[in-house]
Amino acid sequence: MIRFDILTLFPDMIKGLLSDSIIKRAINNKQIEVNLIDFREFSTNKHKTVDDYAYSGGAGMLISVEPIHLAMKTIPNLNNAKKLLMSPGGKTLTQEKVKELATFEHIVIVCGHYEGIDARILNYVDEEVSIGDYVLMGGEVPAMVIIEAVSRLVPGVISSDSPIDESFSSDLLEYPQYTHPYEYDGFKVPDILLSGHHANIEKWKRYQSLKKTYLVRPDLIKKAHLTLKDYQMLWEIKNENK
Ligand SMILES: C[S@@+](CC[C@H](N)C(=O)[O-])C[C@H]1O[C@@H](n2cnc3c(N)ncnc32)[C@H](O)[C@@H]1O
């Protein structure tokens, strides 16, 4: 069981994720727990505002550190939790990082909004995490990305085979997959997949994985653990694409 505590000004944005599909089932099965904490409730001023102008000037409003810190202090066993700040200035989330996060029993996620948060928030979190090199309006979607990605690694949340083959788990992108009908709008399922020849099908899958990764994410090929057979296939793929 992993417990997530999400500190946000917009809890309703995240409620949709929790009320449907696999995440809903995981919550009902007590495989994960997600608590949404609206840190506006911890504002100490009478208008319940949480943002203010930046000392450095510039457009936009910054969220003050106090309401977030006060909200965090109400979370039980906070010292043992992994505390993350969603930030475009953080290290980019990878499947490797997701695997590491899935080893924690408790993850606290702070979502910024507007121009971001007073930098002193960094004294209360372990690290900043970005979900990619682009800027979103708030940390709620990134927090949902983390809940989704980490939860599917919690044993029993999805079928146990799924994380083995899929993209990034084996350094490569996943091979293409097909379901019924056999032919749609003139496009057929590759015949090899109907051959019943297990070894050839496995070889085809590896070839397709290598090909997709080579064409779409050549950077991953450089880091992948490849066998001699893989290098032979890569040579074929390169020649095929000349
Ligand atoms: C508009 S952004 C603030 C951007 C900030 N002024 C900057 O330039 O880095 C508001 C909030 O959205 C969240 N956010 C935006 N893009 C993100 C990303 N790529 N990854 C994670 N969080 C992001 C963060 O919580 C951030 O505090």
Our count of domains comes out at: 2
- Return the average pLDDT rounded to an integer: 96
Spatial arrangement of strands, main beta sheet: 2-1-6-5-7
**What structural class should be given to the helix and strand makeup?**
alpha/beta
- Share of residues in strands: 15-25%
* Beta-strand segment tally: 9
- CATH C-level class of the largest domain is Alpha Beta
Distance between the termini: 50 Å
Radius of gyration: 22 Å
CATH architecture heading of the largest domain: 3-Layer(aba) Sandwich
* DSSP helical segment count: 9
Percent in helix: 25-40%
CATH H-level superfamily of the largest domain: SPOUT methyltransferase, trefoil knot domain
Low-confidence stretches: none
Q: What overall geometry do the principal axes of the alpha carbons give?
A: elongated
H-E string: EHHEEEHEHEEHHEEHHH
Task: Give an account of the 3D structure.
It is a single chain. With 242 residues, the protein is of the alpha/beta class. The chain folds into 2 domains: 2-151, SPOUT methyltransferase, trefoil knot domain (Alpha/beta knot, 3-Layer(aba) Sandwich), CATH 3.40.1280.10; 164-240, tRNA(m1g37)methyltransferase, domain 2 (Trp Operon Repressor, Chain A, Orthogonal Bundle). It is built from 9 helices and 9 strands. The protein has a 5-stranded parallel β-sheet with strand order 2-1-6-5-7, sandwiched between helices. It has a two-stranded antiparallel sheet with strand order 3-4. Strand 5, helix 4 (95-101) and strand 6 (106-110) form a beta-alpha-beta unit. Helix 7 (198-216) packs across helix 9 (228-240). The chain is elongated. The N and C termini lie far apart (50 Å). The relative contact order is 0.13. Residues 86-89, 111-113, 115-117, 130-132, 134-139, 142 line the site of S-adenosylmethionine (SAM).
